[in-house]
Design brief:
About 50% of the residues lie in helices and about 25% in strands. It is of the alpha+beta class. A two-stranded antiparallel sheet has the order 1-2. The radius of gyration is 18 Å and the shape is elongated.
Length: about 70
């Protein structure tokens, strides 16, 4: 599970660099850990993603174009 969490963190960092996620607070993660002999074992991970305003604007504009395209083809 540790390797999976690290892989997700790397992808989220890349999404931040590409301005898909917010620069200030790109994501928030909550790890659920269980005790073990050594370090606590990660048993679950839940995350919240925060999109950048640029990404949100792109999605809104894309939705407008799709809506417009649907009404002109009908």
């Amino acid at each position: 599970m540790n390797a999976n969490v690290e892989a997700v963190r790397e992808v989220l960092s890349e999404m931040k660099e590409r301005r898909i996620l917010s620069e200030m607070l790109p994501f928030h993660e909550k790890l659920v850990q269980a005790p073990s002999r050594g370090r606590p074992k990660i048993v679950d991970a839940v995350g919240t993603l925060y999109p950048s305003s640029e990404f949100v604007d792109d999605i809104i504009n894309g939705n407008r174009k799709m809506s417009s395209a649907r009404t002109t083809t009908l």
